[in-house]
Amino acid sequence: RVLEELQSVEITRNPTRAVPIGSIVVGDHNPIAVQSMTATKTQDVAATVELINLLQDAGADVVRVAVDSKKDAQALAEIRKQTSANLSVDLQENYRLAEVVAPHVDKIRYNPGHLYHHEQSKPWQDKVRYLVEVATAHDCAMRVGVNCGSVDPAMAEKYDRDDSISPMLESALDHCELLDDLGFTRYVVSLKDSDPKKVVEVNTRFANERPDVPLHLGVTEAGMPPDGIIKTRIAMEQLVARGIGDTIRVSLTVPNAEKPKEIAAGREILADIAAGRVRSVVDYGLSTLNIISCPSCSRVENEAFVELAQQVQQMTQYAKEHALTIAVMGCRVNGPGETDDADLGLWCGPNYVNLKRGGEALGAFPYDEILGKLKSELDAMIAQRAGS
Ligand code: SF4
Predict the structure, then answer these.
(1) If exposure means fewest CB atoms within 10 Å of the residue's CB, which of 172, 212, 370, 385 is most exposed?
(2) Ligand 1 in contact with 260 (CB < 6 A)?
(3) What is the pLDDT of residues 191-213, one digit of tens each?
(4) CATH number listed for the domain at residues 290-387
């Protein structure tokens, strides 16, 4: 019935504010923008520019680049000179880099859950005030990027551990209120989770509270195609068909040369929704093996990461009827947190891959041993469940 409702619906989009980002405008009934992100080392200017241009040629409306250090920020200045793409910068944990990068980009993305990493005694409100000053001075839009794996710890503490939606929602609403109070309205919000159902719920609840704020939609760590595209499609169909969403990203774990697939998939999903070709299995759930993996970014610690994720997918095929989640992440910064909810979690270091079962760390293993170790753990978990 829900499927019929979605197929027959005439889409009336939420009356969001207009947010100019470089040469495009997001929100206010403008076409839904499709975004992607680089996964090269930002300091490798030639490789990063090549990937940005590849994405732009594929139709990317905005390309995000991560900066982690002053050297990354300097590289971004050079990258800016070599491309006309609309650029967004991901500030990661170092919000103070904003003043160094803002002159070279069209949008600044910060994560409320990352603001506490530096100058911990300073209230988050002061940090947002600083970001607003920088964005205003350099004609940048902003994205408040709330992510399930890195919610503001103070907010997470207020709610039951089983309720991952409310801390995300409250964090986003608080930041919107402060930005509005500061007179800064040129921002979009994103609320991402690796579970499409949660993406639908948190964005729907946010849109009910703030229908005026443009939303950037995405399923984080959606994984490899085709599953990663299917998970994203499920969330987008539910949201976009109901008028929610002004810009999207399909996050896929693919080699850099295949990153344009993110744009192609995003455009296909939007075209299908606009034409009423909605195919969601509405009750998508974790009844089978679920592999989640990050799309990688400049932080990825070993270039074998994408291949490792693909090998995990192939090696675990024999277990696909089991309702288990395996998470594969590209770095030690976000890997430990982003694998928290998985039954088995892996995250890359330069020479070793870390493995954990539930919350228990099992150690770090060389790249050529990790698949065997993962298989033993998976077998043990399946046997244990069969016996219980
Ligand atoms: Fe980048 Fe690490 Fe997140 Fe993967 S887990 S996208 S490598 S920050």
Answers:
(1) 385
(2) no
(3) 999 999 999 999 999 999 999 99
(4) 3.30.413.10
